[in-house]
Amino acid sequence: MFDLQAVQNALREFRFDGWLLCDFRGSNLLARRVLDIPDQKKTTRRWAYYIPAKGEPRKLEHRIEPGVLAHLPGRAESYLRWQSYEEAIGSCVAGNQRVAMEYSPRNAVSVVARVDAGTIELVKSFNATVESSGDLIQLFEAVWDDEQWKLHLEAARHTDAAYDRTWRLIAESIRSAGSITEMQVQQFIMDHFAANGLTTYSPPIVGVNAHSGDPHFENSTANDTSIREGDFLLVDLWAKMEKPRAVYSDLTRVAYIGKQTPDKYEQVFQVVAAARDAAIERVRTAFERREPLKGYQVDDAARAVIDAAGYGDAFIHRTGHSIGQETHGNGSNMDNLETHEERLVLPRTCFSVEPGIYLPEFGVRSETNVYIANDRTVHVTGGELQKRVLPLLAEY
Protein backbone atom coordinates (compact mmCIF):
# COMPACT_ATOMS: atom_id res chain seq x y z
CA MET A 1 0.00 0.00 0.00
CA PHE A 2 1.30 3.45 -0.93
CA ASP A 3 2.68 5.30 2.10
CA LEU A 4 3.05 9.03 1.45
CA GLN A 5 4.84 9.72 4.70
CA ALA A 6 7.44 7.04 4.01
CA VAL A 7 8.04 8.40 0.51
CA GLN A 8 8.45 11.97 1.73
CA ASN A 9 10.80 10.82 4.48
CA ALA A 10 12.91 9.09 1.82
CA LEU A 11 12.90 12.17 -0.38
CA ARG A 12 14.28 14.24 2.47
CA GLU A 13 16.81 11.54 3.34
CA PHE A 14 18.16 11.53 -0.23
CA ARG A 15 17.83 15.35 -0.41
CA PHE A 16 15.37 15.50 -3.29
CA ASP A 17 12.94 18.39 -3.65
CA GLY A 18 10.35 16.10 -5.19
CA TRP A 19 9.62 12.96 -7.20
CA LEU A 20 7.81 13.14 -10.53
CA LEU A 21 6.27 9.80 -11.44
CA CYS A 22 4.69 9.65 -14.87
CA ASP A 23 3.56 7.03 -17.35
CA PHE A 24 2.16 6.49 -20.83
CA ARG A 25 0.49 3.19 -21.73
CA GLY A 26 2.38 1.26 -19.08
CA SER A 27 5.82 2.46 -20.17
CA ASN A 28 6.90 3.10 -16.58
CA LEU A 29 6.30 -0.14 -14.72
CA LEU A 30 8.32 1.12 -11.76
CA ALA A 31 6.06 4.15 -11.24
CA ARG A 32 3.00 1.94 -11.44
CA ARG A 33 4.46 -0.43 -8.84
CA VAL A 34 5.39 2.37 -6.45
CA LEU A 35 1.91 3.88 -6.75
CA ASP A 36 0.06 0.56 -6.47
CA ILE A 37 -1.54 0.78 -9.90
CA PRO A 38 -2.51 -2.78 -10.84
CA ASP A 39 -0.87 -4.35 -13.89
CA GLN A 40 -4.30 -5.01 -15.38
CA LYS A 41 -5.27 -1.34 -15.11
CA LYS A 42 -5.00 -0.09 -18.68
CA THR A 43 -4.31 3.56 -19.37
CA THR A 44 -4.12 5.18 -22.80
CA ARG A 45 -3.29 8.78 -21.88
CA ARG A 46 -0.39 10.39 -20.04
CA TRP A 47 -0.68 10.79 -16.30
CA ALA A 48 1.70 12.24 -13.72
CA TYR A 49 1.95 12.26 -9.94
CA TYR A 50 4.21 14.77 -8.24
CA ILE A 51 5.31 14.16 -4.65
CA PRO A 52 7.08 17.12 -3.01
CA ALA A 53 9.45 16.46 -0.13
CA LYS A 54 6.97 18.43 1.97
CA GLY A 55 3.38 19.29 1.30
CA GLU A 56 0.50 17.92 -0.74
CA PRO A 57 1.09 15.76 -3.85
CA ARG A 58 -0.49 16.67 -7.19
CA LYS A 59 -2.31 14.27 -9.53
CA LEU A 60 -2.49 15.04 -13.23
CA GLU A 61 -4.93 12.99 -15.34
CA HIS A 62 -6.38 13.37 -18.81
CA ARG A 63 -10.05 14.34 -18.90
CA ILE A 64 -10.91 11.18 -20.83
CA GLU A 65 -9.42 8.99 -18.07
CA PRO A 66 -10.37 10.54 -14.74
CA GLY A 67 -9.73 8.60 -11.57
CA VAL A 68 -6.57 6.76 -12.64
CA LEU A 69 -4.89 8.11 -9.51
CA ALA A 70 -8.02 8.38 -7.37
CA HIS A 71 -6.63 5.98 -4.74
CA LEU A 72 -3.69 8.30 -4.02
CA PRO A 73 -3.57 11.32 -1.70
CA GLY A 74 -3.24 14.79 -3.15
CA ARG A 75 -4.97 17.38 -5.27
CA ALA A 76 -6.43 16.07 -8.54
CA GLU A 77 -6.13 18.12 -11.72
CA SER A 78 -7.36 17.26 -15.19
CA TYR A 79 -5.98 18.38 -18.52
CA LEU A 80 -7.34 18.25 -22.06
CA ARG A 81 -4.82 19.91 -24.34
CA TRP A 82 -1.12 19.06 -24.45
CA GLN A 83 -0.31 22.65 -23.56
CA SER A 84 -2.19 22.25 -20.28
CA TYR A 85 -0.26 19.07 -19.50
CA GLU A 86 3.09 20.80 -20.02
CA GLU A 87 2.03 23.83 -17.98
CA ALA A 88 0.98 21.59 -15.11
CA ILE A 89 4.30 19.75 -15.16
CA GLY A 90 6.07 23.10 -15.09
CA SER A 91 4.10 24.30 -12.10
CA CYS A 92 4.89 21.07 -10.25
CA VAL A 93 8.65 21.33 -10.61
CA ALA A 94 8.98 25.13 -10.56
CA GLY A 95 11.57 26.22 -8.03
CA ASN A 96 12.78 22.67 -7.38
CA GLN A 97 16.44 21.99 -7.97
CA ARG A 98 16.55 18.19 -7.56
CA VAL A 99 13.67 16.23 -9.06
CA ALA A 100 13.79 12.43 -8.95
CA MET A 101 12.59 10.55 -12.03
CA GLU A 102 13.01 7.07 -13.51
CA TYR A 103 16.07 8.20 -15.40
CA SER A 104 19.66 6.98 -15.57
CA PRO A 105 22.47 9.24 -16.83
CA ARG A 106 23.90 7.75 -20.05
CA ASN A 107 21.45 4.86 -19.50
CA ALA A 108 24.04 3.39 -17.13
CA VAL A 109 21.40 1.46 -15.15
CA SER A 110 18.95 0.42 -17.82
CA VAL A 111 16.36 -1.08 -15.48
CA VAL A 112 15.74 2.37 -13.98
CA ALA A 113 15.56 4.24 -17.30
CA ARG A 114 11.78 4.15 -17.88
CA VAL A 115 11.04 7.82 -18.70
CA ASP A 116 11.48 8.91 -22.33
CA ALA A 117 14.02 11.55 -23.31
CA GLY A 118 11.32 14.00 -24.38
CA THR A 119 9.73 14.07 -20.95
CA ILE A 120 13.14 14.58 -19.35
CA GLU A 121 13.72 17.50 -21.74
CA LEU A 122 10.35 18.95 -20.79
CA VAL A 123 11.13 18.89 -17.08
CA LYS A 124 14.61 20.33 -17.61
CA SER A 125 13.11 23.17 -19.64
CA PHE A 126 11.62 24.48 -16.37
CA ASN A 127 15.14 24.78 -14.89
CA ALA A 128 14.76 21.67 -12.74
CA THR A 129 17.67 19.26 -12.32
CA VAL A 130 16.55 15.71 -13.06
CA GLU A 131 18.31 13.00 -11.08
CA SER A 132 17.87 9.25 -10.95
CA SER A 133 15.25 7.79 -8.64
CA GLY A 134 17.21 4.52 -8.56
CA ASP A 135 17.64 4.24 -4.80
CA LEU A 136 14.10 5.51 -4.17
CA ILE A 137 12.79 2.78 -6.49
CA GLN A 138 14.67 0.22 -4.45
CA LEU A 139 13.05 1.41 -1.24
CA PHE A 140 9.52 1.14 -2.61
CA GLU A 141 9.84 -1.63 -5.21
CA ALA A 142 12.81 -3.88 -4.40
CA VAL A 143 12.59 -3.93 -0.59
CA TRP A 144 10.82 -7.01 0.80
CA ASP A 145 8.42 -7.21 3.71
CA ASP A 146 8.39 -10.05 6.23
CA GLU A 147 5.87 -12.08 4.24
CA GLN A 148 7.98 -11.94 1.09
CA TRP A 149 11.05 -13.04 3.04
CA LYS A 150 9.11 -16.06 4.29
CA LEU A 151 7.92 -16.82 0.75
CA HIS A 152 11.50 -16.65 -0.49
CA LEU A 153 12.67 -19.09 2.16
CA GLU A 154 9.85 -21.44 1.23
CA ALA A 155 10.79 -21.25 -2.45
CA ALA A 156 14.47 -21.70 -1.58
CA ARG A 157 13.70 -24.88 0.33
CA HIS A 158 12.01 -26.38 -2.73
CA THR A 159 14.59 -25.19 -5.25
CA ASP A 160 17.36 -26.62 -3.07
CA ALA A 161 15.47 -29.93 -2.81
CA ALA A 162 15.12 -30.04 -6.59
CA TYR A 163 18.85 -30.66 -6.93
CA ASP A 164 18.95 -33.74 -4.72
CA ARG A 165 16.02 -35.23 -6.61
CA THR A 166 17.51 -34.30 -9.98
CA TRP A 167 20.95 -35.72 -9.23
CA ARG A 168 19.34 -38.96 -8.07
CA LEU A 169 17.22 -39.19 -11.22
CA ILE A 170 20.25 -38.72 -13.46
CA ALA A 171 22.40 -41.25 -11.60
CA GLU A 172 19.66 -43.88 -11.65
CA SER A 173 18.96 -43.25 -15.34
CA ILE A 174 22.65 -43.62 -16.25
CA ARG A 175 22.86 -46.92 -14.39
CA SER A 176 19.62 -48.33 -15.78
CA ALA A 177 19.49 -46.93 -19.32
CA GLY A 178 22.90 -45.41 -19.99
CA SER A 179 21.58 -41.90 -20.57
CA ILE A 180 18.86 -39.32 -20.04
CA THR A 181 18.20 -36.20 -22.14
CA GLU A 182 18.51 -32.59 -21.05
CA MET A 183 14.82 -31.98 -21.69
CA GLN A 184 13.79 -35.02 -19.68
CA VAL A 185 15.67 -33.56 -16.74
CA GLN A 186 14.15 -30.14 -17.38
CA GLN A 187 10.62 -31.59 -17.35
CA PHE A 188 11.39 -33.50 -14.15
CA ILE A 189 12.30 -30.22 -12.45
CA MET A 190 9.16 -28.52 -13.76
CA ASP A 191 7.08 -31.39 -12.36
CA HIS A 192 8.81 -30.92 -8.99
CA PHE A 193 7.89 -27.23 -9.06
CA ALA A 194 4.25 -27.97 -9.89
CA ALA A 195 3.99 -30.61 -7.16
CA ASN A 196 5.23 -28.14 -4.55
CA GLY A 197 3.19 -25.09 -5.53
CA LEU A 198 5.93 -23.17 -7.35
CA THR A 199 5.73 -21.22 -10.59
CA THR A 200 8.35 -19.82 -12.94
CA TYR A 201 8.41 -17.53 -15.96
CA SER A 202 10.54 -20.01 -17.94
CA PRO A 203 11.92 -23.55 -17.55
CA PRO A 204 15.36 -24.19 -16.03
CA ILE A 205 18.61 -24.48 -17.96
CA VAL A 206 19.96 -28.03 -18.19
CA GLY A 207 23.23 -27.83 -20.11
CA VAL A 208 25.63 -30.69 -20.77
CA ASN A 209 29.25 -30.17 -21.85
CA ALA A 210 29.44 -27.31 -24.42
CA HIS A 211 25.86 -26.30 -23.62
CA SER A 212 27.00 -25.41 -20.08
CA GLY A 213 29.41 -22.92 -21.64
CA ASP A 214 26.48 -20.80 -22.88
CA PRO A 215 25.25 -18.70 -19.91
CA HIS A 216 21.79 -18.29 -21.47
CA PHE A 217 21.48 -21.67 -23.16
CA GLU A 218 17.87 -22.48 -24.04
CA ASN A 219 16.81 -26.10 -24.13
CA SER A 220 14.72 -27.12 -27.13
CA THR A 221 13.83 -30.20 -29.14
CA ALA A 222 16.25 -29.00 -31.82
CA ASN A 223 19.29 -29.08 -29.50
CA ASP A 224 18.24 -31.71 -26.95
CA THR A 225 21.30 -33.75 -25.99
CA SER A 226 21.76 -36.99 -24.06
CA ILE A 227 23.57 -36.91 -20.74
CA ARG A 228 25.96 -39.84 -20.36
CA GLU A 229 28.73 -41.05 -18.09
CA GLY A 230 31.80 -38.84 -18.44
CA ASP A 231 29.78 -35.67 -19.13
CA PHE A 232 29.81 -32.34 -17.31
CA LEU A 233 26.43 -30.82 -16.40
CA LEU A 234 25.15 -27.40 -15.30
CA VAL A 235 21.63 -26.90 -13.92
CA ASP A 236 20.29 -23.38 -13.37
CA LEU A 237 16.77 -23.19 -11.92
CA TRP A 238 14.54 -20.43 -10.60
CA ALA A 239 11.02 -20.39 -9.16
CA LYS A 240 8.72 -18.70 -6.67
CA MET A 241 5.67 -19.78 -4.70
CA GLU A 242 2.45 -19.44 -6.65
CA LYS A 243 1.10 -16.83 -4.27
CA PRO A 244 0.46 -13.08 -4.52
CA ARG A 245 3.62 -10.94 -4.26
CA ALA A 246 5.87 -14.01 -4.04
CA VAL A 247 9.57 -13.56 -4.82
CA TYR A 248 12.04 -15.85 -6.53
CA SER A 249 14.78 -18.23 -5.50
CA ASP A 250 17.45 -18.62 -8.22
CA LEU A 251 20.23 -21.23 -7.96
CA THR A 252 22.89 -22.85 -10.17
CA ARG A 253 24.97 -25.96 -9.49
CA VAL A 254 27.22 -28.25 -11.51
CA ALA A 255 27.98 -31.97 -11.53
CA TYR A 256 30.18 -34.55 -13.21
CA ILE A 257 28.55 -37.74 -14.45
CA GLY A 258 31.09 -40.14 -13.02
CA LYS A 259 32.78 -41.35 -9.87
CA GLN A 260 35.74 -38.96 -9.80
CA THR A 261 35.70 -35.42 -11.15
CA PRO A 262 38.54 -34.69 -13.60
CA ASP A 263 40.96 -31.94 -12.56
CA LYS A 264 40.06 -29.70 -15.52
CA TYR A 265 36.53 -29.26 -14.15
CA GLU A 266 37.46 -29.02 -10.49
CA GLN A 267 40.20 -26.45 -11.08
CA VAL A 268 37.83 -24.07 -12.87
CA PHE A 269 35.09 -24.64 -10.30
CA GLN A 270 37.39 -23.71 -7.42
CA VAL A 271 38.17 -20.36 -9.08
CA VAL A 272 34.45 -19.68 -9.51
CA ALA A 273 33.69 -20.71 -5.92
CA ALA A 274 36.46 -18.45 -4.61
CA ALA A 275 34.99 -15.53 -6.60
CA ARG A 276 31.53 -16.28 -5.24
CA ASP A 277 32.83 -16.37 -1.67
CA ALA A 278 34.81 -13.13 -2.16
CA ALA A 279 31.65 -11.34 -3.28
CA ILE A 280 29.67 -12.60 -0.29
CA GLU A 281 32.47 -11.60 2.08
CA ARG A 282 32.55 -8.12 0.54
CA VAL A 283 28.87 -7.77 1.40
CA ARG A 284 29.26 -9.14 4.93
CA THR A 285 32.20 -6.87 5.70
CA ALA A 286 30.46 -3.74 4.46
CA PHE A 287 27.32 -4.35 6.49
CA GLU A 288 29.23 -5.34 9.62
CA ARG A 289 31.20 -2.09 9.40
CA ARG A 290 28.12 -0.08 8.41
CA GLU A 291 29.86 1.13 5.27
CA PRO A 292 27.84 2.15 2.21
CA LEU A 293 28.06 -0.55 -0.46
CA LYS A 294 27.27 -0.18 -4.13
CA GLY A 295 26.54 -2.94 -6.60
CA TYR A 296 29.66 -2.40 -8.69
CA GLN A 297 31.86 -3.00 -5.64
CA VAL A 298 30.47 -6.51 -5.17
CA ASP A 299 31.10 -7.27 -8.82
CA ASP A 300 34.66 -5.97 -8.48
CA ALA A 301 35.32 -8.37 -5.59
CA ALA A 302 34.30 -11.44 -7.57
CA ARG A 303 35.85 -10.31 -10.85
CA ALA A 304 39.24 -9.67 -9.22
CA VAL A 305 39.50 -13.35 -8.26
CA ILE A 306 38.68 -14.59 -11.75
CA ASP A 307 40.94 -12.01 -13.38
CA ALA A 308 43.84 -13.05 -11.14
CA ALA A 309 43.36 -16.69 -12.17
CA GLY A 310 43.62 -15.75 -15.84
CA TYR A 311 39.99 -16.31 -16.79
CA GLY A 312 38.83 -12.70 -16.97
CA ASP A 313 37.79 -12.90 -20.62
CA ALA A 314 35.68 -15.97 -19.85
CA PHE A 315 33.58 -14.23 -17.17
CA ILE A 316 31.12 -12.59 -19.55
CA HIS A 317 28.24 -11.42 -17.36
CA ARG A 318 27.68 -9.44 -14.16
CA THR A 319 28.23 -11.11 -10.79
CA GLY A 320 24.58 -10.90 -9.76
CA HIS A 321 21.16 -9.41 -10.27
CA SER A 322 18.40 -8.09 -8.05
CA ILE A 323 15.74 -10.66 -7.12
CA GLY A 324 12.10 -9.79 -6.58
CA GLN A 325 8.70 -10.69 -7.95
CA GLU A 326 10.61 -11.17 -11.21
CA THR A 327 13.75 -13.28 -11.31
CA HIS A 328 15.62 -10.18 -12.45
CA GLY A 329 14.28 -7.59 -10.06
CA ASN A 330 14.46 -3.82 -9.97
CA GLY A 331 16.95 -3.33 -7.16
CA SER A 332 20.71 -2.90 -7.32
CA ASN A 333 22.58 -5.40 -9.50
CA MET A 334 26.07 -6.66 -8.65
CA ASP A 335 27.54 -5.23 -11.82
CA ASN A 336 30.57 -3.34 -13.06
CA LEU A 337 30.71 -5.05 -16.45
CA GLU A 338 27.46 -4.56 -18.31
CA THR A 339 26.67 -1.37 -16.36
CA HIS A 340 28.40 0.68 -13.66
CA GLU A 341 25.92 0.00 -10.86
CA GLU A 342 26.10 2.88 -8.41
CA ARG A 343 22.88 2.17 -6.56
CA LEU A 344 23.31 1.16 -2.95
CA VAL A 345 22.86 -2.37 -1.68
CA LEU A 346 20.03 -1.81 0.78
CA PRO A 347 18.66 -3.72 3.77
CA ARG A 348 15.65 -5.95 3.02
CA THR A 349 16.76 -6.52 -0.58
CA CYS A 350 17.87 -9.74 -2.22
CA PHE A 351 20.23 -10.48 -5.09
CA SER A 352 22.05 -13.36 -6.71
CA VAL A 353 25.79 -13.97 -6.55
CA GLU A 354 26.69 -16.08 -9.57
CA PRO A 355 30.17 -15.71 -11.06
CA GLY A 356 31.00 -18.00 -13.96
CA ILE A 357 33.75 -19.10 -16.33
CA TYR A 358 32.63 -20.15 -19.82
CA LEU A 359 34.94 -22.15 -22.06
CA PRO A 360 34.22 -23.80 -25.45
CA GLU A 361 34.02 -27.32 -23.98
CA PHE A 362 32.17 -26.51 -20.74
CA GLY A 363 31.15 -23.70 -18.43
CA VAL A 364 30.99 -23.38 -14.65
CA ARG A 365 28.63 -21.14 -12.68
CA SER A 366 27.91 -21.24 -8.95
CA GLU A 367 24.85 -19.29 -7.92
CA THR A 368 23.32 -18.53 -4.57
CA ASN A 369 21.06 -15.78 -3.21
CA VAL A 370 21.94 -13.13 -0.64
CA TYR A 371 19.37 -11.29 1.48
CA ILE A 372 20.18 -8.34 3.73
CA ALA A 373 17.92 -8.30 6.79
CA ASN A 374 16.67 -5.11 8.38
CA ASP A 375 19.26 -5.52 11.18
CA ARG A 376 21.99 -5.69 8.49
CA THR A 377 22.51 -9.42 8.95
CA VAL A 378 23.57 -11.08 5.68
CA HIS A 379 21.71 -14.30 4.83
CA VAL A 380 22.83 -16.74 2.14
CA THR A 381 19.82 -18.81 1.06
CA GLY A 382 19.19 -21.93 -1.00
CA GLY A 383 21.01 -24.55 1.02
CA GLU A 384 24.74 -25.07 1.56
CA LEU A 385 27.13 -23.43 -0.83
CA GLN A 386 28.56 -25.89 -3.35
CA LYS A 387 32.19 -26.59 -2.44
CA ARG A 388 33.19 -28.96 -5.29
CA VAL A 389 31.95 -30.41 -8.53
CA LEU A 390 29.63 -33.22 -7.48
CA PRO A 391 30.67 -36.65 -8.84
CA LEU A 392 27.15 -38.02 -9.29
CA LEU A 393 27.92 -41.70 -9.68
CA ALA A 394 29.95 -41.67 -6.48
CA GLU A 395 27.40 -39.72 -4.44
CA TYR A 396 24.11 -41.23 -5.70
Q: How would you sum up this structure, described in words?
A:
The chain has 396 residues and is α+β, with helices and mostly antiparallel strands. It folds into 2 domains: 4-141, 3-Layer(aba) Sandwich (Creatine Amidinohydrolase, Chain A, domain 1); 144-395, Creatine Amidinohydrolase. Helix content is 34%, strand content 20%. It has 10 helices and 19 strands. It has helices at residues 4-13, 29-34, 82-93, 117-124, 134-142, 146-177, 182-195, 263-288, 295-308, 392-395; strands at residues 18-23, 47-52, 58-62, 75-79, 98-101, 129-132, 180-181, 198-199, 205-208, 226-227, 232-241, 249-256, 322-323, 350-353, 356-358, 363-365, 368-372, 378-381, 390-391. The longest helix has 32 residues, at 146-177. The model has no long low-confidence stretch (mean pLDDT 97).
Brief write-up:
This protein is an alpha+beta fold and 396 residues long. 34% of the residues lie in helices and 20% in strands. Helix 6 (146-177) crosses helix 7 (182-195) and helix 8 (263-288) runs antiparallel to helix 9.
Chain-wise SSE layout:
Blueprint: H1 4-13, E1 18-23, H2 29-34, E2 47-52, E3 58-62, E4 75-79, H3 82-93, E5 98-101, H4 117-124, E6 129-132, H5 134-142, H6 146-177, E7 180-181, H7 182-195, E8 198-199, E9 205-208, E10 226-227, E11 232-241, E12 249-256, H8 263-288, H9 295-308, E13 322-323, E14 350-353, E15 356-358, E16 363-365, E17 368-372, E18 378-381, E19 390-391, H10 392-395
Parallel strand pairs: 1-5, 3-4, 5-6, 12-19
Antiparallel strand pairs: 1-2, 2-3, 7-10, 8-11, 9-11, 11-12, 13-14, 14-17, 15-16, 17-18
Helix pairs in contact: 6-7, 8-9
